[in-house]
Structures are given as C-alpha cells and as structure tokens.
Amino acid sequence: MLEVRQLAVNYRGVRGLNPVSFAVEPGQLVGIIGPNGAGKSTLLKALLGLVPAGGVVNYCTCPLHQQLAKVAYIPQRSQIDWDYPITVWNVVMMAQIRQLGWFRRPNRATKETVETALKRVKMLNLHHRRIGELSGGQQQRVFLARALAQQADLFLFDEPFTGVDKKTEAVMLEVFAQLRSLGKILILSTHEWGQSLSQLDRLLLLNQSLIAEGSPQQVMTPENLHQAYGSYLGNSWHQKIETSFFC
C-alpha cells in the first residue's frame, strides 16, 4: 500500500501544496484532478522527492524515496526533449539499462522485455523510428512502454491523456486495466473530464488542498467542483458531469 501523510510543499516560503493525506491500495487506479496551478504535478513530484516537501510517503511501510527502483514516472510531454536523436527501441531499452548497467550488452531476456512492452502499446512496428518523428499519441505510448519495461510496482503519470488520439487513449486504458489486475498501483494527474474518468477507481480533487476524495461519482458533484474551480464552470459543465457519471 502507498500511504501519504501530511505531505506539503513550500517553495522558498510560498506554499505550493497544503498538507495532503491519502492511501492507495494495490490494484487501484487513482486520478488527481483540479484546475491549472492546483498542485497536481507538484503532488506527483513530492511523492518522488523531486521537490522539497514535508510529511511522510511510505510504500509497503518503508519510505518511498528508498525504493525508487520500484517506481515508473512519466512526466508531462512538455518536459521531454523530443528533438533528442534517439529511437523508439532505445527509449524503451533505457528502462532495462538501469538494471543492467551502462557497460553490459543487452541479453536475449532484456530484448524480449523491450519487445513485449512495445507490443503491448502497439508500437513495435515503429521501433526503428526516432522519437521526434512520432505523433503525440505515439510518443506517449512509447513512454508507457518504457514504464512497462521497467517492471515497476508503482506508476505515476502526469497528464497522460493530454494531446493524445482516441486510439492511444484506448491502448493506455487497456494497459492500465492489465496493471491493476496484477496488483500494481497507478496514479495519474489529469484535467480531462471525458469518459476516461469513469474508468478510475478513485479521484482526488485538488486545489492546493485536498477538497474531496472518493469514487468519481462521489467526487464529481457540482458542490465539490464549485469549491475547486469557482463559479465560472457554468451549467454546461454541470450537464457534462451528469452525462459522464450519472446517466
């Protein structure tokens, strides 16, 4: 189980995230939603120790920062250098190099792991292409394959559905379901309000503080969303919520 207690972030005296506490059981897919600047990415980075934070983050009763080899993290696409001259195959192989070491040649088992990961995201046929030549959805699938090749137990995704096509979204949701069945923990941040939210086990509604937590139906209420987003949502948003979760 992942246990988070009173996790808070301060940037030189400016509060980036008020104390947040929650727990995630094995086999759960949890979404973090909230407006821009709510602290969604900050929360993911704080879990990994990438930003200064106070509080406790334990995985299987031990500090998570001591077990980062068990974590696969996919940042937002905007944080990745897509001009770097590397092929799809080598992007995924990087997950195995961490385990092999830089000076050992990949063995047959390693190559099979990379090939299987690319097959699962339907990208094996483009393994020779440079990452910068792919579409946004294809790039996201490659980085999902790298996470799979890492053979992690905890997966963190920052805005994985942003700018992707319907095929990629369907592939990702299928892989997420497979990982859940294996008892993996998956946490993703998102600002998408489509049907993909209904696939999540739980939601954390965030705006600097944790406003609501529970199933999508419990969290996506007009009252909670008004508290998180303010009055500008309007009736069209309320209708979209009802269509997505209550019909």
Automatic annotation (TrEMBL):
InterPro entries linked to this entry: AAA+_ATPase, ABC_transporter-like_ATP-bd, ABC_transporter-like_CS, Metal_Ion_Import_ABC, P-loop_NTPase
Q: Does the keyword rRNA-binding apply?
A: no
Domain (ABC transporter) spans 2-233
Q: Does the keyword Transport apply?
A: yes
Keywords in alphabetical order, please.
ATP-binding, Nucleotide-binding, Transport
| Pfam families, per database record | ABC_tran (PF00005)
Q: Which terms does the record give in the GO molecular function aspect?
A: ATP binding; ATP hydrolysis activity
Q: Which family does it belong to?
A: Belongs to the ABC transporter superfamily.
Q: Which PANTHER family match?
A: IRON TRANSPORT SYSTEM ATP-BINDING PROTEIN HI_0361-RELATED (PTHR42734:SF5), METAL TRANSPORT SYSTEM ATP-BINDING PROTEIN TM_0124-RELATED (PTHR42734)
Q: Under which name does UniProt file this protein? A: Manganese ABC transporter ATP-binding protein
